[in-house]
Amino acid sequence: MRRTPLFAAASALLLAAAPQGQASPQSAGDTFVISLARDTAQSSAGSQSSTHDQDSIVERVIRVRAEGIELEYDLPGDADPDSRAAQWQYPVRVFQPGQGARQLLNRAELEARRDEWLRGANLTRESCGHWIFTWNAFRIECDPQSAIDALQPFILDGTGLAEGAAYRDRAARAPGKLGRIASGYRARMDVDPETVRRERAESDVAAGEIMRKPVTLPAALAARAKESVSGTVTVSLDVEPDGQLLRRTRVTRVEIRRADGEVETDTATETVERRPMETPPARPARDVV
Fold first, then answer.
1. Rounded to an integer, what distance in angstroms lies between the CA atom of residue 253 and that of residue 42?
2. In this predicted structure, what is the pLDDT of residue 103?
3. Are 169 and 192 in contact (CB under 8 A)?
4. What's the maximum distance between 2 C-alpha atoms anywhere in the chain?
5. Given this model, what pLDDT does residue 191 score?
6. Dihedral of CA 252/253/258/260: which sign?
7. Does this model's pTM top 0.85?
8. Which SS3 state, helix, strand or coil, does residue 274 take?
9. Residue 278 and residue 281: Cα distance in Å, rounded?
10. Is the predicted pLDDT of residue 140 greater than 50, yes or no?
């Protein structure tokens, strides 16, 4: 279960999806560390705030088939016990076909870990899907399929990259076109106002549940419909000399003019980087006495 700040829907916005194509050649045993850093800045009515968050997961190639790749994702080896206990979705095994969505392979294992986590947290199945607040706001996830959703921000898909190729982002009104830059490619798109309004409305519903001041989604959508939204999504893709995608930097800038005329500006920078895991140095041989 990943903790999700309430601002994530409005400020960090949504997830990028690179063009589809054939997977890059990989071998069983290949291991990578994928890091994800998020920085947000908000300004409104003379006040300013900012946040920084950083996570990482380990991707391991389990098996390469003719039709796709079996992968395992897990928390880093140095993850503290509390983080591992809270995030019952890891380790998760998935199958990535050459075309199409990832498929969950260890559902039964995840279900067992979920049930153990619920018991340990003194929660019941009725708690599933609800928002609570401890040191942070988060939604209680109980569906093993949520493990696939939790992976999405970490996924780098560098297939199909070419100058002029279409690049799609679900926060954007329409696809953009990739242009060449020194480090790889870049696409700039206009945000979709309706997507932003819906994300803000969903955040309002979550906040209402936590504060015990319930608001329905239709009511929240109606309130947010009065806002004027504009902005851009700029995605930069850094490519290594061998053509492998190394890094994705996604900058979202949104200006929201409320019904009372007040203007809110949100900027979010999300950087995902995937690097081979370094092999620990071998221990020197000890002399036999």
1. 10
2. 93
3. no
4. 83
5. 94
6. positive
7. no
8. strand
9. 9
10. yes
